[in-house]
Amino acid sequence: MNPLDAAAPVPARHVTLADIARAAGTSASTASRALSGRGYVSEEARERLREAAERLGYVPNLSARTLKQRASRVIGVAVSDLGNQFYARLAAGIEQTLREADYQMVLVSDNSDRTQELACAKAFLAMRTAGVIITPADSEAAALLARNGVDVVEVDRRLAEVPCDGVVIDNERGARDATTHLLALGHLRVGLLVADTDWTSDAGRLQGYLDGHAQFEVEVDERLIVPIAFHAPDTESRIGALVDEQRPTAIFAANNTLAEHAWQVLRRRGLRLPHDVSLVGFDDVPWMAMVEPGITVVSQPTVEMGRRAAQLLLRRAADPACPPALETLEPTLIVRGSTAPPSPLQH
Amino acid sequence: MNPLDAAAPVPARHVTLADIARAAGTSASTASRALSGRGYVSEEARERLREAAERLGYVPNLSARTLKQRASRVIGVAVSDLGNQFYARLAAGIEQTLREADYQMVLVSDNSDRTQELACAKAFLAMRTAGVIITPADSEAAALLARNGVDVVEVDRRLAEVPCDGVVIDNERGARDATTHLLALGHLRVGLLVADTDWTSDAGRLQGYLDGHAQFEVEVDERLIVPIAFHAPDTESRIGALVDEQRPTAIFAANNTLAEHAWQVLRRRGLRLPHDVSLVGFDDVPWMAMVEPGITVVSQPTVEMGRRAAQLLLRRAADPACPPALETLEPTLIVRGSTAPPSPLQH
DNA sequence: TCCATATGTGGTTACGTTGTCACACACCAC
DNA sequence: GTGGTGTGTGACAACGTAACCACATATGGA
Question: Which end of chain A has fewer CB atoms < 10 Å from its terminal CB, N or C?
Fold first, then answer.
């Protein structure tokens, strides 16, 4: 063991290429080549340098490398709400794929706030990230990034006005499947709980709901459609009002949060699933399979969406010229016990 | 509108301080002072530079700044499993606090694998992160970081052999509360499902289980203690074996994953909660309050743990000399319907 | 013998930022 | 006048790395 190891437990300065070059009796240039594997280095010198780097505990300075190479291996990711399992799983899928490709993920939760989102974009720009994956709340962030030559992938919804890659699920189809499942069971008054946004995801789910009705030639009662903003304090009272005043025989809750609120409201009112009301959710989360009866739900491949988004970004890094792709994944309707034909009493 | 804006939609090179200095007719030094707010700059020059920066879309290069200042505003975070809601919420708490303090979070999921964890530590070192928050699986990563002068905060468990800050919950107390709750109800054969690790978290929960028995002067049957590794493929069969062979009247599952598996096993066997078996979990997750009956659980302030960890790191950044702190948060036993006295038939 | 090619090496420069320093000027008090 | 102080500026160096180039030396074929 080298006595220096014990003598310098906390090096005041980090070890640099120049240090290990000096230790191995070469120049910094050679050290750089030896450790990065680019360019000619004799086997003997490479070995000496590797040994010196190991002994001195050399760790390359990524800031210097990024500055010099004008390219980093960091990807910025901005999601709406890391506390929501949907976004957490999205992030997990992204992180997994990036890690396998030896990239790092900088993760920010922007609360779907366009100001925060723009601030994120600026931060990612300042970091010179190799790309950005975003669940957009506004088109401005993507525009800023694109204007500065940063690749962007939109996940879960499309908002960008500039051409960029995207990964979404087929919201129309998912919502239509949910709706027609209920209509086929004989429901005529299907309530819709949907997020109050101008996002393509929610617009698509609304459209699927309407399409389903058109397909079954059931007229839509506008009063059955309840748009509710994220984290709105009156969420449950508005759901309660829908239940009490419109008497839907079934409810389609177009995201996992609204499904949870709806479930709570129904339970608190003592309404039984599916006898008194049928319930369908969108985005399968664990509790839906565990409660009794289980919740019929449009399941989306969330982790896979994250993976695909990361893959799109990596693909574009490899081939910047490839045309923008929009991948649409297919949702699956999982029928559980929360849906059944309306009971005679309801009519 | 400046015609240059339209003429250069995609600048090939990023705008630098030198560019805006030139545009404003000053030196780069003055530009730096004007925008960073350090040092003397005339109000007039500052205004001109600000305007130029705005007009040209200047975004500072963080790599250059980090290189020069030898300090970044990035914090590395390594958790065991981002797919598990516990770690996701931990990360959410950390991210929130860091964002408010204008730091960025680099998040990695290391699968509790010491090799991956060490690789993370190296990557964070290379990025010259201002600090690292980690749910440790091994002491090596913290040692490496500390040796290089990087501040480390351990969350959820303690493993480091070097002095460093930490945030944990009182696992002994949580587990003791869960255990004595069951013993007080009259249970004499309480099964323990615990993660098979050498982590302080699981060791503490085991200890709390033993302490609870000691307190009630109930002898512990070793066969009731089942250590199960994360993601072990035979998890449910081992739980099944416990149920079938040892006939516990109650089960304490010492983390949310094991609680879920136990619940599934009991349901599949048609055993009713709490009539046939009582069940207590550790770490409250949504389904536990939603299933019928609800699961009695030792709840931990997960998001708050993340926040505290970030705060400890920020505190140390402000005052590197402050003594290492170990914050111990208190868990809360939430009694729901899954626990009741053993039924006469069970004896 | 001599030029081509392959193999190695080190010097220099540049990436974009910020800190240090020297310097210039204005103003005021002595 | 002189010496201070406050204000303002730009030249220059440095952070650590990697690309580029110039320059060695060895090997081979013409």
Answer: N
